[in-house]
Predict the 3D structure of the following.
Amino acid sequence: MSDQHEAAKGIVRRNTLEVQSGGNFDLFDELFADDFHDHTPQPGGTPDKEGASRLYHALREAFPDFHAEIHWQTVDNDIVTTFKTYHGTHKGAVLGIEPTDREIKFETVDAMRIRNGQIVEHWGVANLYYLLQQLDALPPSAPKVPEL
């Protein structure tokens, strides 16, 4: 793998481990380009850098111990794809659900385009259905997802 690919993976790893997991929001400003575009913003979010920042802050408020376990990463040209599991303890409101003090986990697959050492685009799929199941926020008739 080229040095450029390794550098791109490193940028995404720093975001996952230091910003999302560690709460280093000064680093967020360095890693995300001002013209960042999220192609898959979360419900109620906006597709820009400010929207990503608000989401990261909201996750840390809802889950103060929020952290990621990276399972694998791959690079295709300038796009880094990461499969990870997020973990945390539900201490604040999330998706309109009041705190339950439950420990949660849910998987995410993210693809991030890197340009000039910064994250410029994002596509992602988060298993929010499984998160809602762990918080008892699904209708009783909803099918259960097997334990991870």
In short: The chain has a mean pLDDT of 95. Strands lie at 32-38, 67-76, 79-89, 103-115, 118-126. The two ends are 31 Å apart (CA to CA). Residues 3-20 form the longest helix (18 residues).
